[in-house]
Amino acid sequence: MNQEIIKIFDTTLRDGEQSPGASMNTEEKIQIAVQLERLGVDIIEAGFAAASPGDFDAIDKISQRVQNSIVCSLARAVEKDIKAAGDAIAKAKSKRIHTFIATSPIHMQHKLKMTPNEVIKRAVSAVAYARTFVRDVEFSCEDAGRSEMTFMKEIVDAVIEAGATTINLPDTVGFRLPSEIGKMVKEMSDFVKGRAIISVHNHNDLGLGVANSLEAIMHGARQIECTVNGLGERAGNAALEEIVMAIKTRQDIFKGFDTRINTKEIYPTSRLIANITGIEPQPNKAIVGKNAFAHESGIHQDGMLKHKETYEIIRPSDIGLDLEDTLILGKHSGRAAFKDKLAKLGFELDEFGLNAIFEKFKILADKKKVIYDDDIRALVTSEMTHIQKAYELVAMQLMDSTGGVPSAAVTIRHNDMETTDAGIGGGTIDAVFKTIDRITGYQGTLIDYSVKSLSQGKDALANVTVKVTFNDNEPAMIGHGLSLDTMLASAEAYIGALNSYLSMEGKLKIKNIDSCKTI
Ligand code: KIV
Ligand code: ZN
User: Fold this and answer.
1) Which of 156, 354, 407, 469 is the most buried if burial means most Cβ atoms within 10 Å?
2) Closest ligand to 170 CA?
């Protein structure tokens, strides 16, 4: 049977990055884009080019790297944004500009302070200008969920005339119920009559992002905007993995529909993004949560042993989760076995990268009896996404706080010079971070700190994520550290945040601009 393809528009790198605490550096964004391409997404919204030179640079680099997916940049309906978007994606093989303006009465009146006619005029000139850069232009009626249908039809008609090829109807504040989204999409689809592709972008404020997206497909939407792990503004966006697996699992309902997603890349993509952002999906999160395939009750376990389908609607292997093959290499494993394991996990490394990670693996294997898939994933991610390291941790020694003053001696390498200093603090971590500040001369303020064990056992790797500001006027930087020793991982994470800050310093101007609310 000929199946109709639902286009998957992934906005993890744009709307997902707007999740509090999910900022990523350029190297991390490139690695995610490469994985999204491997996952098979049709369109990668790589960022918002006008938001900052850092965003522009990341989109430009992603455009040069990605071959099989369309690379897209968001742009407000203003000339300078559209020019930045057009320039940032110029080198992409397939490219799209996504421009938007709010169409709901509340946004037009209070945020834009524009009349509906002015909004239409602005939208038309934005789309026409975008068409001077690319043939593929998407137009979004921001806050479509709360916009009046008559006005939306008017503006949609005008932007299609001006050259828009995709019309996106975002439920920006996650307000609508599935039946309402279905009605809105049907009415717009009937109106547009194939002149443009209808898309939806559903936020999850009422937990309905995925349900609303599925209902939209039933009523004519042929593009779904979504994010991996459901990242995004506030309560996030519709989760890519849930939408794709619902379509695949319920073919009785979604007869005739398919996506181009290689579902076996879902779990690796989810892990990569969780490792990079430090935002773990909740344990009971559908499809990719830690417990999504765990059967705890005796009755369920008994059923599973007798016949898997008693309690399992998706095979873990369908999303690339190999439960049977989790326990892997040890210190005697050779380079070939290690390379083979990396390939199975979806990592293609050049000789240089392989050697660097194999070395790290050997050091880890010396200290840790068994190494799990998730350990390897985190190891590779932390190696591959490191930006230019201005500062590197060389050694650290801690004096215990029992009865005394917590203190730390730290050695850091910078410009091929090693500096050692010691300091005290309210607690051991405080002592470590203050000593790093003294050595580097940068005063960091710790906004958030979390530690997570990566696998089971007392010798599990500690994965530390910190959020630090180095300047009150600039956004916080995220740093990650991975080590068997939590204190070492903490120091590495803190230095990683500083390195990220330095790699962006001078480039950051209006980072984290709120794309949905400003014009
Ligand atoms: O939620 C929203 O309306 C958006 C648009 C910019 C598409 O993210
Ligand atoms: Zn959004």
Assistant:
1) 156
2) 1
Taking only the tens place, the pLDDT of each residue in 217-257 is 999 999 999 999 999 999 999 999 999 999 999 999 999 99
Identify which of 96, 99, 140, 234 to mutate to test ligand 1's pocket (most ligand atoms within 8 A of the CB): 140
pLDDT in tens, 125-136: 999 999 999 999
CB 406 within 8 A of CB 430: yes
CA distances from 441 to 169, 437, 438 (A): 48, 5, 5
Cβ–ligand 1 contact at 170 (below 6 Å):
yes
What is the number of the ligand 1 atom nearest to the C-alpha of 515?
6
What is residue 385's predicted lDDT score, i.e. its pLDDT?
61
Burial 340-357 (b: 16+ CB within 10 A, else e): ebbeebbbebeeeebeeb
Using a 10 angstrom Cβ sphere, with 0-12 exposed, 13-18 middle and 19 or more buried, the burial of residue 19 is: buried
pLDDT tens digits, one per residue of 255-265: 999 999 999 99
CA atoms lying within 13 Å on the CB side of residue 203: 22
Give the CATH architecture of domain 4-277.
Alpha-Beta Barrel (3.20)
Q: Which ligand is in closest contact with the Cα of 9? A: 1
Task: Decide: 515 in ligand 1 pocket, CB within 6 A.
Answer: yes
Write the residue with the smallest CA distance to atom 1 of ligand 1: 172
Provide the pLDDT confidence category of residue 19 given band limits of 50, 70 and 90: confident
The CATH number of the domain covering residues in 392-503: 3.30.160.270
**Does residue 465 line the site of ligand 1, with CB under 6 A?**
no
Residues in the chain: 519
> What is the pTM for the complete model shown?
0.84
**Ligand 2 mean position to 225 CA, how many Å?**
9
Query: In a mutational test of the pocket of ligand 1, which residue from 516, 517, 518, 519 has the highest number of ligand atoms less than 8 Å from its CB?
Result: 516
Q: Given this model, what pLDDT does residue 394 score?
A: 96
As a whole number, mean pLDDT of residues 351-377 equals: 83
Q: Residue ranges per domain, the chain?
A: 4-277, 293-322, 324-386, 392-503
The position carrying tokens 């369309």 is: 70
Q: Is 140 in the pocket of ligand 1 (CB under 6 A)?
A: yes
Mutate to test the pocket of ligand 1, among 11, 13, 15 (most ligand atoms within 8 A of CB): 15
CA–centroid distance, 432 to ligand 2, in Å, is 39
**Residue 12 phi, psi (nearest 5):** -60, -40
How far, CA to CA in Å, does 37 sit from each of 4, 66, 214, 257, 474? 20, 7, 23, 21, 31
Identify the pLDDT of residue 511: 32
